[in-house]
Every structure is written in structure tokens, then in C-alpha cells.
Amino acid sequence: MAVGKPTFPEMHPVAGFRLGTTAAGIKKPGRKDLVIMAFDEAATVAATFTRNAFCAAPVQIARDNLVKGSPRFLVTNTGNANAGTGERGLADARRVCEALAELAGCRPEQVLPYSTGVIGEPLPVEKILEGLPAALQACTEDGWRDAGEGIMTTDTRPKGASRRLSLGGKRVTITGIAKGAGMIKPNMATMLGYIATDAGASKLELKQMLTSAMNRSFNRITIDGDTSTNDAVSLVATGLSGAAIGDDNRAEFQAALDAVCRELAQGVIRDGEGATKFVTVQVEGGRDGREALAVAYTVAESPLVKTALFASDPNWGRILAAVGRAGLHELDVNRVSIWLGEVLIAERGGRADTYTEQAGQAVMDEEEITIRIHLGRGDASETVWTSDLSHDYVRINAEYRT
Amino acid sequence: MAVGKPTFPEMHPVAGFRLGTTAAGIKKPGRKDLVIMAFDEAATVAATFTRNAFCAAPVQIARDNLVKGSPRFLVTNTGNANAGTGERGLADARRVCEALAELAGCRPEQVLPYSTGVIGEPLPVEKILEGLPAALQACTEDGWRDAGEGIMTTDTRPKGASRRLSLGGKRVTITGIAKGAGMIKPNMATMLGYIATDAGASKLELKQMLTSAMNRSFNRITIDGDTSTNDAVSLVATGLSGAAIGDDNRAEFQAALDAVCRELAQGVIRDGEGATKFVTVQVEGGRDGREALAVAYTVAESPLVKTALFASDPNWGRILAAVGRAGLHELDVNRVSIWLGEVLIAERGGRADTYTEQAGQAVMDEEEITIRIHLGRGDASETVWTSDLSHDYVRINAEYRT
Fold first, then answer.
1. Residue B58 contacts by C-beta under 8 Å, 6 or more apart in sequence?
2. Under CATH, which number does the domain A18-270 receive?
3. Which of A77, A329, B130, B364 is the least crowded, having the fewest Cβ atoms under 10 Å away?
């Protein structure tokens, strides 16, 4: 189950960024599960990784290699997360990097590894090594769709986004794919994102732009610091468009990058495990962003709110209770207003006089729902996206691995 | 569904504490839904209430009345929480207090009101007022079982606990009932607890003992500050046993009070919505209690851990991932060890060499499961209790109110 139609957008190729996908038999025979992304040494790379203390072996290696060298390859396997695998996991991830480096004629530290799937099982290295030649062979600038499928785990569909813009008279492309699934806290399933652009940028600049985009997209479907063992979002800039990002066009590029990241992040939510609703939680009037975010997450993650959303039940009392336990200092509940879509449901500590069950029900019957909360104590606002809690969520997560 | 057999213990009456229950037709005709507890003015009363900013009208009134006066009655209705009801809710709760005071011949501020049920609907005051005479009439020291049933909402069975001890040669009784349900965070459903003793204690002493007991029971199935709109646990000491609590016997009384509270709190978990497992999460080796508790809650509330528990799947990687995202400063994962029951499943950052799936499966097949985590960085320990996340949890919470 997922929210909305499974449309995959037109994916504009990014000059100098090639993707190759194969079925290495890691999960099931014939299932695409191994993806290589290739680019030249001149490209710059930025990435953000999970903050989980138990970060997976590939995350440790990728983080180290990113600092060390000039990456040329990203290699991703699904079916096994290579997490909680200790020293052996590190050795296994290194073997994959070494094998690809040997095949491609580069140094092992020029390869960044990524894994997603079951935690705590040894990585089936041999299968991956056997699959590398075919994946490398398949590399093409038109490989986005296959790669989008190749990184899926419990995802029901690939997620892609692509934008073109003109920078200083030159056409620039930003294209990306992501995988997610998991729902109550989407971050708890591994989230992987890969975005490439043919604009040129320094490493520092690229990192700053990625961080900024993350805080309006992937980091707004996940709690700060509350990540899975394998989460990673990577951004590669090949520079082959001839357009360089600078002071005169940075804002424009950032807006397009934000849009791509937001579309991918929302795609992760729409395909959340068992999701039947796409929910936007918008909090306004906070003293600062931190408290607006705290309220947004408390509402978005409340199992009682989420089951009410699944049932299309305008049980606004559950929203109100969630706002009340978000831990805000001296919250005056009499100044709080709450809307379902355009319908004012609560104000002055109770149900709004104008509210009718019928009006609330009409909003809840929609597949896309916005919950808007005004705290009445400042100017800060934050938005997070989430989904509902359905029977299928329990089914998928109880059956996964069995 | 609930864990273990629905046994209700022998409830020793508490001298001077009477309970009367009736069916006032608030929820359904014939369903016990109104409970009065009565005691003399000489009794001392302590209570802890929700920290939710949107605390319900009865909580505000009960808190005020507890400070003002010498309580003589606790009155509880189910079927309606009188929360999120603004000024009208306060007026409604006051009317209930006034009506009971008039019937019983006391001052309105000697009545503490409690409500649980749907949030945001006006309290059906008339039905409650009509039910008061019968409930008052029914008051008896043997009324515990009926009262235990009268306070239930989505609970599938009443929860009671009773202990007797000898203090300075005098027989002292501690008896209590509780209601709960709700599961992912048990606190998100209203939790009510009522405990009475015929020991004598000052108000301050009683409050300190209740707080201490809470931190080993009800507050270990709930996050600090993360409470529903109506939570309340109350302790009444009638003093009629003739035994007074003092320095020479305080520890003994506290231990018995702790045991009663723990049994009630665990009863709430065993009857959690859709619960099929009773899970103890025991964290040792923390630098301080705060971090031990953070790890315990992160594991106990992880939807992925909870669905694995429901599936009896020894997916220890999910436990490890939860420990890793609990936010501990500089956690050295190589010093962390994790056990399922007596089976060591993870150490040194990965699966234990001695671990077998078969051994893990044998523990997971049990109805009662202990997850033990040693952090290897200090001496602090904490224990919390939780249950699993089942299909029935979603069904109950999606259907409630419809």
C-alpha cells in the first residue's frame, strides 16, 4: 500500500554521472539488488550519514573514504545492511571496495559503499563480488530508473525526482533517487538518497547546500539524531555543465536542490510501510524552530493520532493531547489553535464553536491531510511529513525477515 | 487480548475506605461507569497528576481541591474524559463535585473528580448526577472489585493488588486498583490508580512515599512528562489501623507500597491494547540513571522492536539499532552487551559468537520476555516494562470512538 499513484518522473540524465544495476542474487534470484554509480575524479561529493552509535560497517568506510580521497564510485547493495557485524563487517565492506577498485582501475578509498536490508547477518560478499562486473558494465547516464529499483527494500515503488534550471545561461540538471519505507519514524528503516548534478561546486559549498536541503526535506521526515544504522544521503557534482555555483546563482540552485530533496523525501513518506495517508504537520507561532519542531514531531509520531488518521476519524482530541505533551515550557493552551485542512477544530483549550464533525470528517476522508497548529507565542514555524499507522504496518514489520 | 490469565487477587478491605460503583449509562446502558470512593476527613491524601499542558478539567479541579481542603470523596466516571472542553468542562466538573457534596453533606472542595474516556466531547453531567445517589448508597469497604471494573475503558479486565504487613505489632493493609490500556506509550491512554491504606501518615510523608513508589512502577511504564490529559494516581491513608508510619518502619511500608504499585503498573502493561507479550527491558552499566532510562525507553518504544516481539522474531539487530540511537554521548558500542532472557545475543558491536537463532527463538516464543542491556560504562541501572505491537493495537485504536 502507498499513497497516490506510483508515477516515476522523467529523469534527466546528469552529464558525467553513470548508473549500473544488476541482480546479484543477494535477496532473491532475479531481483535487482546491486547498484554502481560512477563519475570522474574531478567531481565533488558531499554526504550526510546516520548519527546512530551503531552505524553500519559501510557507513564507517564511506565516511572515512569520503575524507581521504576523491571518490569515483558509489556501490550499493540491498538485502543485507552489513550492520551489527563487528570487525568482520568492516573487512567485508573493504573487500567490496577493493574488488570494485581493481575492476575499475582506481584506489579502494575512491569507492564509497552503502548497504541496506537485514541487520546483523554477515554480508554475502561473494555474491556481491560476482555481481560487480555486470553492474559496472551496465553503467550509463540513463540508468536512473533501474538504480531506483535496485536500491529498494520494502519499498513498493522507486522514488525519483529531476529538475532542470538555467545558471548563467547554461542548462544545469539535478536528478536523484531515494529509498525508504518504515513509517512511525521513517528514519528507523534505512533511508538512502543519491542526488547528482552537472553544476560545479566546491566540496565545502556542496556540503553546505546539502545540509540546508536536508533540513527542509529528509531531516523533516526524521528526528534529529534518531536514525537507523545505515542512513545516508549523497550529493555528487560533476561540473560538466560548465556552470559553476557562486554568489550570484546559489539561491537559485539551492531552491532547485531543495525541491528535488523534498520530492524524494515526500516520496519516501508516500511509500511508507502500510501508508494510506500522506500527512503534513505544519506548526506555526512557536518561540523558536526547536519548539515548533518538537510539537510537529510529537503530533506526527503519536501512535494514537496515526491510528485515528488511518481510520479517517477526526479525533482531534488526540492531536490536542499530543500538542500538550510536547514538553513546551509554560504553554498557554488558551492561545493554541488547531486546523484540519481549512477547518478550525480547536481553540481556547477546547473544541472550536464553529467545528462540526461533518466538516472534520470531510478532511479526514481525503488521502492527503494537513494538520496545522498555531501555538500563539512567536513567529517560528516548521513542517514535517508523515503517514498513518495501519494494519499493514504491523503486518510488514512483523513478517519482515521471516 | 492480554498477557497471562485474568486473575483478580483477594482484595483486603482498608478500614475507613469505602467504594461504591454504579451504571450511570454514560457509555452503554448497564455498564459500570461511575465510582465513588469515600473516607473520613481525618484521612490524608496524596496524588500525582499528568504533566500534559492540556490537562483535563477534572485534573485541574482535583489538583486545586487537594491543595484547598480535606478531601472526603474521589468520584470517577468513565466514557468521557472531560478533556479539551475549555471553560464548560471546568464548570461541568465543578457541578459533579457540588452535587456529590450536597448529597453527602460536605463542601464541594472536599470532592476530587476524575474522568477517563473520549477527549473533546462535553461531559454528560446529567447522567452522572443521576447516578451519584446509587453510587454513594453502594459504598462499602468490600467494593474494590466493582470499582476496579467501574474505572475500565478499553481495559479487558480489572487490575488490583493488595498487601498486608505488620507495623509495630499492628496489621496494616495496602490495597489498590488501576486502569490503563494503550500500548506503544502506555501513558498515552489515561492511566488511573487508586491506592488506600489504613496506616497513618502526614500529607508530606504520604506524598514522598507515593512519588518514590511511582518512580519504580507507574513512571516506569511511561515517559517522564509524556502523559495523557487525565492521568492520575492517588493514595489515601485513613490511619484507622492505629499504626503510624515513622522512621523505624518507613522502609518496610515503602517496600509494600512499591510492590502494590508495581503489580498494578505491570497489570496495566499485561492488559495493554492488543498486547500478546509482557516485556521487561533492563538496562545496566549506565553512567547515570538518566541515560539508562533513555536506552530502556528507546528500546521499549521502538515500533520495529515491538513488531518483532509480536512476531516472536529474535531480530536482535533492531534492539541494537535502538540502543544506538538513544542519544548517549560517546557510546562505545564495543562495550555493549545484549541478552534475550539468559541468551547473550550481541557483544563487541555485533552478534555474539555463541549466539544461535534457535536459542534466541526459544526466548522469543515465551509470553514473558526480558531484554537485558549492559552499557559497560558505569553502575546505574533502570528497568521499564512494555508490551508488543500487534494487529489488535491498530484495530482497537482505529476503531475506538467509531
1. B82, B93, B113, B114, B115, B230
2. 3.60.70.12
3. A329
